[in-house]
Amino acid sequence: MKFRKIRNILRYLFAFALNVYIMVIFHSYINFLLMIGMILFPVYSVIALMRVKKTMEFHITMPVEPMEKKDEVKVYFRIKNNTFFPIVNATIRLTVENPFYGYEGDHDLNMPMRARTETNVSYPLQMDYCGRLLVCAKQITLMDLTGMFETKLKIHEEKECLILPKGELRNQEAGQLYLKGVSEAVESKEKGYDFSEVSGIREYIPGDKLQNIHWKLSVKKDELMVKERISVSAMQLNVVVELANDNEMRLESVLELTDSITKSFVQQNLPFTLFYYSMNLKELVGTYIGNEVERQEWFSGVLYDKSYANAGIVEEMYLQEVPNESTYLYIGYPGTTEEENVVYGNQGVVAVLK
Questions:
Q1: pLDDT, tens digit, 9 for 90 and up, residues 96-137
Q2: Is the Cβ–Cβ distance between 274 and 290 less than 8 Å?
Q3: pLDDT for res 226
Q4: What is the largest CA-CA distance in the chain?
Q5: ∠312-318-323 over CA atoms, to 5°?
Q6: Sign of the alpha-carbon dihedral angle for 193, 196, 199, 203
Q7: Which of 13, 134, 260, 324 could form a disulfide with 160 if both were Cys (CB 3.0 to 4.6 A apart)?
Q8: Alpha carbons 329 and 289: distance in angstroms, whole number
Q9: How far is CA 125 from CA 95, 101, 165, 312, in A?
C-alpha cells in the first residue's frame, strides 16, 4: 500500500512537470488550464475523502444459526457511500478467529465506493474445525481519486457463527454403553417398593402393575391410584469429555464422537450429565442433558470456552469432585481399554466406561 502511494505521487508529479514544460515551450493556454486543474484536483480529492470518511456506513452479516464444519459460511459485507464523492478503493482489514483453538488470521478485503451507492460483497469461508468463527473488521483504509492520499478509520464491527461437529448416530452402541454404565445400586433401588422412592401419585391406567397400587389412597378416593416410581429413563449416566488438544487436532475427533454418543442418547430418551473442564471458569462444569435443545446449548457453551494442552485434567477433577459415582463414560484418549466397554472414534479417540 505504501509503495503504491509513493508510485502514484511520483507519477502525478511527473505528469504535472511534463504539462508545465509543454505549457512553457508552446505557450499553450490549454496546458495552463490543465495545470490549474492539476493543482485544484488533489484539494478536491482530499475534501471528498474526508467527507466520505465522516458519513460512510459499514456492516457485516453472517448466518445466525449454527453451521456444521466443512459447510461454506457466507459472510456479507455492506459498505455505503452517503455522499456524491466517489472513492477509488476501500480496504477493510479483517481478523478471522477461532477462539476455541486460539487461531487468528488477518485478511484484506478491497471494495469500491461509488457515489451515493451501497456495495455488497459476499466473502465465503469454510471452517475445517469446530469452534466459534469470529469475523471482526478493525480498520478501513480509504484511498482518494488520485491514489496519493489515504485515511484510516478505526472501527469495531464483528459477527460470529458457531461451527458444530457432525457425528453419525450410533444408537445401538451408545444404548449398550448407557445400560452398562447405570450402576447396579441404582437399578436395585428401582425395584424397591417403599413410599420414599415414589416420585408421584396418579390414576390407574390399564396395564399398571398391581404392586404399584396405593391401596390406602385408592380406598379414600374410591378409585384406583398408582404410585409412579422413578423410571429407568430417569436414571442417568455421567459423561466426562476431554477437551485437551494436540498437534494432530485430535480434539476434533473427541467432539465428533461426543456429538455421536450424546445425540444417540437424546434420541433414545436417555438423560445424562456432561462434565468438562472450563478454561474460562477454571473449574469442572457439569450440565444435565434431557433433550436436544439442552444438548445443543451445551455444545454452544463449550465452543465459547477454550481448549487446553494437558490431557487428563478433567478426569482428575471429576474423580475429586464427584467421588460417589462408581461408573462414568469418558470420551477422550485413555490408552488401553476393555473391548466390551468401548465405542471407537477416529484418531484413537474412544468413549469408554470407567
A1: 999 999 999 998 998 888 899 999 999 888 888 999 999 999
A2: no
A3: 73
A4: 123
A5: 135
A6: positive
A7: 134
A8: 14
A9: 13, 17, 17, 34
Q: pLDDT per residue over 141-162, tens digit each?
A: 999 989 899 999 999 999 999 9
Radius of gyration of the chain (CA): 33
DSSP, collapsed to helix, strand or coil, labels residue 305 as coil
Mean pLDDT of 311-320: 89
What is the number of other CB atoms lying within 10 angstroms of the CB of residue 116?
Answer: 11
Q: Are 316 and 292 in contact (CB under 8 A)?
A: no
Beta carbons of 256 and 161 less than 8 angstroms apart: no
Spatial distance between the Cα atoms of 257 and 154, rounded to a whole number of angstroms = 42
DSSP letters spanning 109-126:
EEEEE-TTEEEEEEEEEE
pLDDT tens for 208-256 read 666 567 766 776 677 887 766 544 444 678 999 999 998 899 999 999 9
Helix axes 251-267, 171-181, angle to 10 degrees: 80
Amino acid at 312: G
User: Which residue in 14, 46, 16 sits closest to 31, CA to CA?
Assistant: 16
Q: Is residue 15 classed as helix, strand or coil in its secondary structure? A: helix
Cell 478501513 belongs to 140
Nearest to 348 by CA among 275, 233, 257: 257
Q: Are strands 198-203 and 283-289 parallel, antiparallel or unpaired?
A: unpaired
Look up residue 8 and give its three cell numbers. Answer: 502514484
222 backbone φψ class: left, alpha, beta (φ>0; ψ -120 to 50): left
What is d(CA 288, CA 284) in angstroms, rounded to the nearest whole number? 14
Rounded to two decimals, the pTM is 0.76
Q: State which amino acid sits at residue 19.
A: N
Label the pairing between strands 150-164 and 67-68.
parallel
Tell me how long the chain is: 354
How far is the C-alpha of 49 from the C-alpha of 54, rounded, in Å? 9
Pairing of strands 350-353, 342-344: antiparallel
- Comparing CA positions, the residue from 310, 283, 312, 304 lying closest to residue 100 is 304
Task: Identify the CA nearest to 169 among candidates 343, 38, 300, 15.
Answer: 343
